[in-house]
Amino acid sequence: MITLLPSRIYALLKDIVSPDKPKDKTFDELVLALKKQLNPPPSTIAERFRFHRRHQREGETINTFCAELKKLARYCDFKDNLTDSLRDIFVCGLNNDTIQKRLLEEEKLALDKALSIATAMETASKDTAELQGKSTGISGVNKLYIQKSTAKGNSKKEANSGNALPLRESDSTSTKLRDRDESPNPPLTTTAGSFDLSQSTHSKPPMESPDPSSVVPTPVPVPEPTLRRSTRVRRPPDRFTCS
Questions:
Q1: Which residues contact residue 62 at a Cβ distance below 8 angstroms, ignoring those fewer than 6 apart?
Q2: Contact 99/109 with Cβ under 8 angstroms?
């Protein structure tokens, strides 16, 4: 059997049993020596530390939590106190206060009984939550239907009121425009240093005709005559001679 070992393992085995030789040891002694070297047993203190710090995680079922505790207790070396240690950590590590309180009410509580009570309460709690969720879902559907109906009614009212509002505003605007057009001379409201731009821009007072007697006629300029130069040639006068 030793001859079938890889050279690396055989070299390690020679170092382990040194100063003896592998051929001087029995097969069981060689296997035990290799196990201690390649797979040493965990520390009891470290394993107990992990065991006592184990608590039920969020979403972890009670059966899964109990199975994980038993797995961690394998190397804790509790011996005869294994069952009591499992029960104590099981009760203390539960994340449900209601189940934990119910288990603490028991005077003599074994691990199997604690597991049975906790599992039954966990199942009942899940069933209750499921039933409440269904009823809440039905009421939620009814509430949503009522909200949608109310929203539709409100939207119709807002649409009607929105259509009526521009009509009232247009009627009021047209009435104001008609009154402004019919007014012969709308007043121009002025204050010290300011004036009403709306009235001064849209409604100007008509201009009055001037009095004919007070109008001064504007003189019309008369062009001066232009002297044209004659183009005819003047002949000199005939001279008379005395005989």
A1: 56, 94, 99, 115, 118, 119, 122
A2: no
Phi and psi at residue 190, to the nearest 5°: -125, 150
d(CA 18, CA 24): 11
Q: pTM above 0.85?
A: no
* pLDDT tens, position by position, 152-166: 666 666 665 555 544
Calpha distance 5→148 (Å, rounded): 79
Provide φ and ψ at 44, rounded to 5°: -65, -40
- Tell me, rounded to whole angstroms, the distance of Cα 225 from its chain centroid: 97
Whether residue 186 has a cis bond before it, omega within 30° of 0: no
Read off the tokens for 195: 């004036």
Half-sphere exposure of 120 (CA within 13 A, CB side): 8
pLDDT in tens, 47-103: 999 999 999 999 999 999 999 999 999 999 999 999 999 999 999 999 999 999 999
Neighbours of 76 (CB within 10 A): 21
CA pair distance 46, 222, nearest whole angstrom: 133
Structure tokens at 94: 């539960």
Residue 192 half-sphere exposure toward CB, CA atoms < 13 A: 0
Q: Nearest Cα to 110, choosing from 128, 142, 83?
A: 83
Q: How far apart are CA 170 and CA 188, in angstroms?
A: 25
Helices (H), ranges, 108-239:
111-182, 197-202
